[in-house]
């Protein structure tokens, strides 16, 4: 049975509270670093770590808000996230602190590293890859993207998956494809999935103020504009991530 636990570590002047999930046994295990969406580390990313552990991956869902979750507080979330997205060195330092925690886990195979990120967390793991962290693959779901050139990505070593919704105003299909062309010019193996009718954070199930699911697709708590849950595309995006990772491990033809 997989083992899950909280791990605390220091980064960005804060005490971060991540979620570590490990497969049974002693390893060696391939490892996945997970970056949460701008709202904060919630149960969805924790479950992704747990799911990966059940498939034989050691997984750490990092924290970059010092244990805070900004559900229902979009203004506070933006005040935290936007300065972070404007500071590449800060993003890389936050990501490296979490990666160091993951690599220090006994049984982790440092030669088989992967990354998965949502929203701002997608940007953080992409910045780590750009800095030369040798991920075998990076999956970024509606990441925060910037204008870049092919020269920025010469240190990237692995394949890249980009996912977004056709109706996402914060990570548009046009932005994803433009970024894909930059990766292509840099010689990177990349692919992109655009999910028809999906909005931003389409995997985030709406909840009530006490955290329980509403059972619908419309958020009742305040969010940034353009956010919407899409129950059909949520598992499709997750399956695309698993397919990428398994492919790079040679688990599938």
From TrEMBL:
Region (Disordered): 206-232
Alphabetized UniProt keyword annotations: Hydrolase
Record Gene3D superfamilies: alpha/beta hydrolase
Entry keyword Hydrolase: yes
Any GO MF annotation of the entry: hydrolase activity
Biased composition (Low complexity): 206-220
Record keyword Hydrolase present: yes
Residues in Dienelactone hydrolase domain copies: 18-248
UniProt record similarity statement: Belongs to the AB hydrolase superfamily.
Record's protein name: Dienelactone hydrolase
Species whose genome carries this gene: Mycolicibacterium flavescens
Native organism taxonomy: Bacteria, Bacillati, Actinomycetota, Actinomycetes, Mycobacteriales
């Amino acid at each position: 049975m997989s083992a899950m636990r909280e791990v605390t570590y220091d980064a960005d002047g804060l005490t971060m509270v991540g979620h570590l999930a490990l497969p049974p046994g002693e390893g060696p295990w391939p490892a996945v670093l997970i970056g949460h969406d701008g709202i904060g580390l919630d149960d969805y990313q924790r479950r992704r770590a747990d799911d990966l552990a059940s498939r034989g991956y050691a997984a750490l869902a990092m924290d970059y808000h010092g244990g805070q979750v900004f559900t229902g507080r979009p203004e506070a979330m933006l005040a935290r996230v936007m300065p972070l997205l404007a500071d590449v060195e800060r993003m890389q330092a936050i990501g490296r602190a979490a990666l160091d925690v993951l690599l220090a886990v006994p049984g982790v195979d440092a030669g088989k590293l992967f990354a998965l990120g949502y929203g701002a967390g997608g940007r953080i793991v992409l910045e780590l890859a750009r800095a030369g962290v040798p991920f075998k693959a990076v999956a970024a779901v509606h990441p925060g993207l910037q204008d870049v050139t092919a020269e920025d990505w010469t240190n990237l070593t692995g394949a890249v998956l980009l996912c977004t919704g056709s109706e996402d105003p914060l990570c548009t299909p046009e932005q994803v494809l433009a970024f894909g062309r930059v990766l292509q010019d840099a010689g990177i193996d990349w692919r992109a999935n655009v999910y028809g009718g999906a909005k931003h954070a389409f995997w985030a199930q709406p909840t009530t103020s006490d955290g329980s699911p509403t059972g619908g697709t419309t958020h009742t708590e305040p969010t940034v504009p353009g956010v919407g849950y899409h129950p059909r595309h949520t598992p499709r995006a997750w399956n695309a991530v698993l397919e990428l990772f398994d492919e790079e491990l040679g688990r599938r033809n």
